[in-house]
Amino acid sequence: MLRTLSGLNKATEGSAHWGEHNLLHGKPESHVRSGVSHVSEGKSVVAELTVAENLDLGSLWRRNKKEAAESKKQALELFPRLGERLSQRADTLSGGERQMLAIGRTLMSKPNLLLLDEPSLGLAPLVIEQIFQTIRGIVDSMGLTVVLVEQNAMGALKIADTAVVLNLGRVATSGSAADLIADPAVRAAYLGY
After folding, report:
1. Tell me: the pLDDT tens digits for 65-95?
2. Structural domain total, the chain
3. Which of 16, 49, 60, 79 could covalently link to 53 via disulfide, CB atoms 3.0 to 4.6 Å apart?
4. The CATH number of the domain where 31 resides is what?
5. What is the per-residue pLDDT for 118?
6. Inside any domain, residue 112
7. Is residue 69 part of a domain?
8. What is the extent of the structural domain holding 78?
9. What pTM was computed for the model?
């Protein structure tokens, strides 16, 4: 779903708009220029590049170097651990650090809609908690809208305002995250208790 919204896959029908921008048409770079950025599932950093070089990739299309420097500063404030590893190659980072780098690099493009695909995949529980809290912090401090696709349903619901539960690609239910957590039918069917 997120690959389609970010322009990586072509949609065959339907519509999805972010402001005036039709997300089901156009190339990924036009989506980024209109404020839509995607952190894909899995390995989404360039392993051979340093942390600093990976971050810089996120702002390549921006002409204003001062804004790019400010974005980098903001990303490093969100993820201080990356600041300690700026000259380190990405392939030497832990899984959690790579995920931080992927999110930080994506934030360099100054999105107003951030698409996150399974950010907790393969991470240790302590790191998952840190990533989720950072995502919530991004929403609160930067005012971004985040679309989070996540199999760790309870973790995602704890940080979400609104949630949509999909079952076989169709909307099974939606509403406030708090209401979905409190709903016995949702808990039994999707949260395992």
Report:
1. 898 899 999 999 999 999 999 999 999 999 9
2. 1
3. 49
4. 3.40.50.300
5. 95
6. yes
7. yes
8. 2-160
9. 0.90
Token pair of 54, please? 């990976």
Count the Cβ atoms, other than its own, within 10 Å of residue 92: 12
* Strands 162-167 vs 170-176: parallel, antiparallel or unpaired: antiparallel
The residue to which tokens 């993820």 are assigned: 79
Q: Is 4 exposed, middle or buried (0-12, 13-18, 19+ CB in 10 A)?
A: middle
pLDDT-wise least confident of 6-20, 73-87, 96-110: 6-20
The rounded distance, in Å, linking the Cα atoms of 7 and 160 is 24
Residue 87 lies in a domain: yes
Asked whether residue 192 is assigned to any structural domain, the reply reads no
Nearest to 41 by CA among 98, 126, 108: 98
Tokens of 140: 């609160």
What are residue 171's DSSP bridge partners? Answer: 166
The predicted-structure confidence for 124-169, as pLDDT tens digits, reads as follows 999 999 999 999 999 999 989 999 999 899 999 999 999 999 888 8
